[in-house]
Amino acid sequence: MDNIMKTAVRVLLYLLAACLLVWALAPEWRIVTLGLLLGLAASSMNAFLLRRRVEMVTHGAAGTGPRKMGLGLGSRIATVLLVAMIAYRFPEKFSMPAALIGCMVMPFILLAAAYIHNKRQS
Length: 122
Fold this sequence. Notes:
Elements (H helix, E strand, L loop, with lengths): L1 H24 L4 H33 L9 H18 L6 H8 L1 H17 L1
Helix pairs in contact: 1-2, 1-5, 2-3, 2-4, 3-4
């Protein structure tokens, strides 16, 4: 899981760098790239929240830690709602569709990274 997450974070950082380059070089795309940057930041935070939740569940199932109840899904949904509220409040700075698309990128990056890691191991 750690190698997959490291690969996914590396790809996400490349995407963030590409968005910053587009933001700097193409002024007409600034609203879209800022929305995408906002969504990618929220997507990475959601991935780390999900990773922590999976670790808590595995420790609880193994019996090595206490069973903890939390708002795993609620906190991830709240993050996406916060992004949507920011993009709605400042439409001159952030593109709403780009921000929401950015929120959904990290699960696909994780899926691709897991597929590549599994193919390399077998």
